[in-house]
Amino acid sequence: MEKADGSVHVEINCSQDEEKLFSLLRSVVEKSNCQSVIRVVGGWVRDKILELPSNDIDLTVSNMSSYEFAQIIRIYHPFGQPIRSKEDDEVKTIKTNPELHKHIETVPIELLGFKLELVSLRSSSYTTSEKNIGTPEEDAFGRDFTINSLFYNIMTRKVEDFTKMGLEDLRNKVIRTPIDPQKTLNDDPLRAFRAIRFSIRFHCKMVLELRNAIKSPEVIFHLCNHITKERIYDETEKILSKNPYDSFEELCELGLYKAIFNGEPKVKNFWTDESFSLSRKSFTIYRRLYENDERKTDAKHLIFSAFLLPFAAKDSSGKNYLLPLSRFQMVNYWRWTKQDSNVVYMVVDTAKHLEDLLEEFEKHGNIDRLKSGLLLRDVAELYHHARQIAIVSLMLRFGESSVIEKYERFENRLGEMEQIGEHPIWEMQLHVKGAEITNLFQIKPGPIVGKILEATLEFQIMNPEKSKEECLTFLHSKFGK
After folding, report:
1. How many CB atoms are located within 10 Å of the residue 75 CB?
2. Kind of pairing, strands 106-111 and 313-314?
3. From 218's CA, which of 8, 55, 129, 407 has a CA 20 to 30 Å away?
């Protein structure tokens, strides 16, 4: 039951440390006589009602700016440690940036071991240059979703639901915006990504009006042109951390793939309805066949490999396959490690080369042992996943019915080379190493050592049954001494 002040009968079980924090804040208000009402808002309230752990405490201040209240904390509670900038002794303020759709000024502080963020109550005009302090009702209706619009008033110790929808939507597992979803998303387009994240995390259903607003050309345009690539991928990472296949399916369904893969000028206009349809088909085939594969590899690597697969094309040298997305974007925009980006490139490149080998096998009935051996050694443990992506690629080209049987015949032959002795080919130890080569051939370290090592590897791939002595005889005959 809801009261006129917005409070509702919901129990919030605070920890002892949280009680100490809230008691301290009440004491600061009382000692300073600032007559502020302090409320916790957003994720902490939502999670407490759901009986989930939460350290994400955002505090709103009713009658002054967050900066002013932080100064009051410093005066009336000297043990408070507002985070300061290196240049001066002032409380650090994270300023607004309307161009990046950051409209709220926040002040981070640390108190009793809690890292908090202080914000003023937003007004109905918070996205404009006019920065008035709002009411709790205005703030609640300016939030992203109703389930995040609930307050915990630490003065009265009561939950407040000023939208009159937050608690009900939380109980019914519904994601909706407090006001028209188009306006909510225009105020901050990243809310489109957060809608997916919350729906996946809390097993909620988005209302149809919100789904349609996310797919609107206006929102997609803002995401592609006005939000930094880093912020978009930060949200994407959070989404893919839970149920990655369902999450990526939603990103595709709602058209947000355009923002994720929209990094460089050369691919700005790459995603047409036709190209997306092909990528979506590739991802769908991969998911149906291999989603439950138990081998431990980050799902995002394989999801992106499958999605980008249809557009892998040979580079100018004709040796390597490139994607319509560079390692530069993966590392600099998505903040992947070089190793992460190399996994996607290695898996797709190997898959396409496996296709090339299969075509040779179909024509000639045999496999180039050296070429396939070097390929398997380079891809190493990722071979299993490259094989999966190769099958998906073949299914895109030839249909699904005949591919598996055709590929199995090819892979049986390839499997004969995968193992050399008791170990996979990528674990095979070379008969000679660099230091030994310089001694045996009486040469100094340099490019020639690399050539001898390369010849050693090729000899062992082509002659797995031959001994070290036979390998050395070959090397001496080829390089002298």
Report:
1. 11
2. unpaired
3. 129
Spatial separation of the C-alpha atoms in residues 184 and 191, rounded to whole Å: 8
Contacts 24+ apart (CB under 8 A), 413-421: 413/361, 413/366, 413/367, 414/354, 414/357, 414/367, 414/372, 414/376, 417/367, 417/369, 417/372, 417/373, 417/376, 417/461, 418/376, 418/383, 420/460, 420/461, 420/464, 421/464
CB half-sphere exposure, 320, CA atoms < 13 A? 7
pTM as predicted: 0.81
Can you tell me the distance from the alpha carbon of 32 to that of 80, in angstroms, rounded to the nearest whole number?
15
Distances, alpha carbon 429 to alpha carbons 345, 420, 465, in Å: 25, 10, 14
Residues 472, 432 contacting (CB under 8 angstroms): yes
Other CB atoms within 10 A of residue 224 CB? 20
Could you say which DSSP state residue 121 is in?
P
pLDDT digits (tens, 9 = 90+) for 232-244: 989 999 999 888 9
Rounded average pLDDT over 335-353:
89
- DSSP reduced 3-state for 118: strand
Query: Which secondary-structure segment (H or E) carries 31?
Result: helix 16-32
pLDDT of 3-18, one tens digit each? 546 677 788 999 999 9
Gap between the terminal Cα atoms of the chain: 94
DSSP for 47-114, written as a single string = HHHTT-----EEEEESSS-HHHHHHHHHHH-TT-EE-B-SSSSSBP-B--BGGGTB---EEEEEETTE
